[in-house]
Give the backbone structure.
Amino acid sequence: MMERSLVVSLVLILSLASQTIRANDDWKKETSWQPFAQRWAASFDKDKNISAIYDLAYPDWTKKIFLGVIGGNGNYRTEISTNIKLAKQNPWTDPLAADKALLDLSRTRSSFLDTGTLPDKWWQTVNWRVKKFSLDSKAPDTFRLSDIDIESEVAKNEGLQKIIIDSQKALNQVEGDNFGDQYLNGFTFELDRSGNYNISWSPPAALIKTSGPRKLSDLNNVKWAFNQSVVVFFVKEGLMELSSLAGPTITGALVGTALDRFFHFYENMLVTQENMLLEVLTDLAKSEPVFPNTNLNPDQQQKVIYSLIFAQASIENKWQLKFLWKDPVKEWKRTLKQTSDFQKANLTWLSSHGSTYTLLNSRFAFTEGKINNSALASLAGRKPNKKGPELAINYSDVQSIYKNRVAEEIPTGFVFGTYFAPYGGAIARAFYKHYVEQPMDNEKSWEGRLLVDLEALTASQSKDYSLEYKILDEQRINPLVDLRSESLKLIDARRKMIGL
């Protein structure tokens, strides 16, 4: 959970950022376009200079998405305890705080923590807008998050009230179409035959339409994308404060879990879309051009690159942000050197372990060997571990990455359980996000970069990567990221919108 001082700082940053962020209908103000690689379009100002890069494949808010399941047979107390113990081994965790968290967890009585079963008559403890829910003799078969009177839960806390209002305003700015005013109405909990609740989000009727292209980079204001990311960060962290309603309440757990899952997938989707464009710029920087229609001069390339690395700067990492803001050129060179060092280390590992490889480009390689067997390896995302490079695709067992992610990526019951031991749960949740979800999200971002590389090679060399597209589609495990076939339809529809 963020410190209050950081929340206040973000409120101030948000107020400044809102002066430079326009709603997500900027594309309507553009008058001239040309294609940029396969998935983007470049807009031009009145002097015929490229002014911005727009994403034609940015996911549309038109479909129902599944966020996870609350319930089931599981000992979440053990899972939370394990994560706290693992967190204790890391230098960033206060060992005394971890010990207190374990003691807090051991003293917490909760049927859900022990068995995955919701407390008896839990619905009668919730403050519903429709009072019949609390009067019924059985749990509701279906309810929406908006059926809960959230405002009354935080009526005594003006700070949380402000966060809710500001978060809605921020989403209105980022997504447009009054998205923030509508999105809480989209969360639904549906009881299944096993007695578990399936959480989903469906766009309210007012949001269901094919939206226009999404601006990713503004060449006239390289910090525009950073201001966008500030808003998203503020929304996510601010709403997570909403989950810390007084005490381990059912309402807090329901609200917190639904929003935790939604904004986890949302942030991952945004970062992946940015990384796809960054891959094109990396390709140009390394003189490996395979992308069509990328006619940017060196100054324009730098501006797009800077805007994207600004967007992905971590607000929590003050040192990174300080150096990036002061010298983006140095930060970009550092990034290129790091990816180059990772590549060399991974290729050295492959050679020393009897594996052969064929480079797709400087970031990916097809490999054959006794340890990894047949795979498409990601070379630039991290150093090799004892098993070798990160695998983007495992041809020897195409289901392996998918199965691992299914087991790790949707810990909805775990997240829900952490709210019943607020102190210990917060440490466990932070550890899980940092050491499980964050590395997995990084893998997905690199797989997004791989996808656009394969698309470029398909276009330029007529190579068939249909198997790779299918595997990458399946193992993305993010309901907010479209299948490639859906993305291609959006690209075609948006090209027509802007007259390409």
